[in-house]
Design brief:
alpha/beta, Rossmann fold, 9-stranded mixed beta sheet, two-stranded antiparallel ribbon, 13 strands, 16% strand
């Protein structure tokens, strides 16, 4: 019943206003600390708001969020502006970037380099959220028939920004911005982790079932053990519009990693929510793998070897339904009408997710340490 009883607000309301007076703040206009949300769709803003307001992600109250996006991206970010105004999110602002990026200028100094530097210098960390497939031509591969490219300008922005922050194999003489502030915080979730890898010179498997398991039909994937299903392929049948679009499987956490510390230093392999069909292949510059699928075929988490607060995860701890007591609908019925808390209580999954956000909150709390 955590969804009903646990939550307490943590953000400080900075000022009050009437509905017709609310104005979205300009970012970086005061002494507040900022966390960047890349691709700030309404969906991602709602998840961030849920996690922080309910104390799951205990971000210190002096932080504000700034959503950063490219004005040529396919999403209509005016919806996000409307969401901020309608919900009086005094702690949230937006920043749209406009200079053109293309595949040939992502991993060099370009027209957005000064903007990247400005954002970096005025913020404490960045979250890169999930999303669609990255154009494989960026990492030197032809496009698989199962690769779906829907928003290249979003990818161009995030890849170039991360290369400026971390550097990569593409140009090892390039000086990463994080050399100036090594404790800067970066989290990549699902696509975000894939972007971390490609931005630093890594590559991808473009389709897990066909390339890693030699499986070519939905039915054959669904016949596989749960630990080998990395998205809920039941959604392909569209038998129920409310079906939970994630699969649950375990991850194997490597010793001596951030993931192990979050997992309480135990050998238990927690269940996580997964929804992806691509996976890391060649690992980019300065990463170490810190979690894998139980069969060790899929990279589930990476940590940066130079910068201690930079890591990526292939799973989805930000999903709101994981922290509510409502039943999850899986087709065919796999949950018995139970919530995540009931299916995977304690060390089976719930504790890992709560400790994950608790750890991230400490990373952002300059007085707490980790």
């Amino acid at each position: 019943m955590i969804g009903k009883f646990l939550f307490v607000p943590v953000f400080l309301i900075l000022f009050a206003c009437n509905n017709d007076e609310f104005q979205i703040r300009e970012p970086f206009q005061d002494d507040a600390k900022y966390i960047v949300l890349m691709h700030p769709t309404v969906f991602n803003l709602e998840r961030f708001q849920f996690l922080t307001e309910n104390g799951i992600f205990p971000l210190p109250e002096n932080y504000r969020a700034v959503g950063v996006y490219h004005q040529s991206a396919s999403y209509d970010y005016s919806l996000s502006y409307d969401h901020i105004r309608e919900n009086h999110l005094e702690n949230t602002s937006m920043l749209g970037l406009k200079y053109e990026l293309h595949e040939n200028n992502l991993f060099i100094a370009n027209a957005l380099s000064s903007d990247f530097k400005m954002i970096f210098e005025n913020t404490e960390g960045i979250i890169f959220f999930g999303g669609p497939d990255i154009p494989p031509s960026i990492y030197g591969y032809p496009a698989n028939l199962l690769t779906v490219i829907t928003d290249p300008h979003r990818h161009y922005l995030e890849l170039s920004f991360l290369f400026h922050l971390l550097g990569g194999f593409q140009d090892e003489s390039f000086e990463p911005l994080l050399d100036q502030k090594p404790d800067f915080r970066i989290l990549g979730i699902c696509l975000g982790m894939q972007t971390l890898n490609i931005a630093t010179g890594g590559t991808m498997y473009q389709d897990i079932p066909t390339e890693l398991y030699n499986i070519h039909t939905v039915e054959d994937v669904l016949d596989q053990p749960a630990d080998e299903q990395h998205r809920n392929y039941q959604i392909h049948f569209r038998t129920d519009p409310d079906v939970f679009p994630y699969s649950f499987h375990r991850i194997h956490v490597e010793k001596g990693s951030i993931m192990e510390s979050i997992n309480g230093g135990t050998a238990i392999t927690p269940y996580i929510a997964s929804s992806h069909h691509q996976a890391l292949k060649k690992i980019g510059k300065d990463w170490k793998v810190t979690a894998r699928s139980p069969d060790h075929k899929i990279v589930e988490a990476i940590e940066h070897e130079k910068y201690p607060n930079v890591f990526g995860i292939q799973f989805h701890p930000e999903v709101i339904r994981l922290y509510e007591d409502e039943p999850l609908i899986m087709v065919p019925e796999q949950t018995g009408g139970k919530s995540f808390f009931e299916i995977y209580p304690g060390e089976m999954g719930v504790d890992f997710h709560l400790e994950f956000w608790k750890y991230l909150g400490k990373v952002y709390d300059l007085d707490a340490g980790v």
